[in-house]
Amino acid sequence: MVDGIEIDKEVAEETLLPDDLNSLAVGSYVVPDPRKRSQYPFFVFAVLVITYLTSLVIDFVTFTPTFIILLSVVILLFLIDNKFRIQQQEVIEKITDSIEHSIGYYSIALTFLFSIRNILTPVWTVIVYSHENPPQFKTIVEINALSGEIVTEPYTENINA
């Protein structure tokens, strides 16, 4: 996995390159473990219980709309699948057959698609540049993080055209 574009330290300092763009300062970024999201329903459920108990104590305020909204959020959060079958490190290996040019620099981002079956389906969106300097081709590929299947047809464009 490529950590970032290699920039000479002196060049980065001379051009006043911001730290968030300087791979020497920040390093590679790893998407946080999605299993942390499995804790969210319990926090929202705790707020739901507090709201219900508060509604028993305070008679002049109705919490019914809040209660309904929080209950629906808790149900949705319990339905979301929080386990990836394809980890961030495995994405490039899975898409190599789908890319028609050589692989140089790439960027991987986690996005979500709405579907009835999984509510929110995690999708790895990858932008891959060819190895030439400057790159001649750019391809965008989306891969389902749960099944490993390509979500959309890879889109390739000639950058120098």
Provide key terms for this protein:
161 residues, alpha+beta, Nuclear Transport Factor 2, Chain: A, 2 domains, 5 helices, 4 strands
Folded structure, characterized:
The protein has a four-stranded antiparallel β-sheet. A hairpin with a 7-residue loop joins strand 2 and strand 3. Helices cover 30% and strands 20% of the residues. The radius of gyration is 22 Å and the shape is elongated. The protein has two domains: 46 residues; 75 residues, Nuclear Transport Factor 2, Chain: A (Roll). Helix 3 packs antiparallel against helix 4. It has 161 residues and is an alpha+beta fold.
CATH level 1 class label of the largest domain: Alpha Beta
The largest β sheet comes out as: 4 strands, antiparallel
The strand line-up of the biggest sheet is: 1-2-3-4
- The first-to-last residue Cα distance is 29 Å
Number of strands: 4
In helices, the fraction of residues equals 25-40%
The name of the CATH topology of the largest domain is Nuclear Transport Factor 2, Chain: A
Structural class: alpha+beta
Strand residue percentage:
15-25%
Shape: elongated
The average pLDDT score comes to: 77
Number of domains: 2
Elements, N to C (H/E):
HHHHHEEEE
Subunit organisation of the chains: single chain
Global Rg = 22 Å
Return the CATH architecture of the largest domain.
Roll
